[in-house]
Amino acid sequence: MSAKTITARVLTAEAFAPFGDVIERSGSPDKIINQGMCGRHHDLARLDFGSGRAGISLFDAKARSLPHTVDMVERHPDGSQAFMPVDGVPMLVVVAEDDAGQPVNLKAFVSQPGQSINLHRGTWHGVLAPLGKPGRFVVVDRIGDGDNLEEFWFPEAYIVDAAES
Questions:
Q1: DSSP alpha helix (H) spans, 21-74
Q2: Domain boundaries, position 125
Q3: Number of folded domains in the chain?
Q4: pLDDT per residue over 119-159, tens digit each?
Q5: CB 13 within 8 A of CB 114
């Protein structure tokens, strides 16, 4: 099987907006709380759990490296899914547009220190891929009845190469 190549780029809120939210601190806090000792950066992601409820899980993910093979993507039709690195390990984030139920136009991003992501409901995405070393992640996603997972296996794999500088 031959492979198509895509180049990872630095994760930015603007470039990632069609697929989800980049959760990061920017600017001054929206509110100062806790006796003036804490700045709150408020409502940074559009969480969507359909008929389910929000759940918080911890994921332990094995390290990946670039170049990285993508032969499958998945999506969650019933809820959004947020990934927040606990160890500060960067992650490779692969996403795709949807064309009549099939992922197309794959894009790859590499997170920067202090960044987390929230994938919008139904967004095609690659598997959790911390780069360089294993990572622990807090994951906020839908807990509820029904199967909230669709997978798509590509007939031809994609290779993600190193991020542009």
A1: none
A2: 3-161
A3: 1
A4: 999 999 999 999 999 999 999 999 999 889 999 999 999 99
A5: no
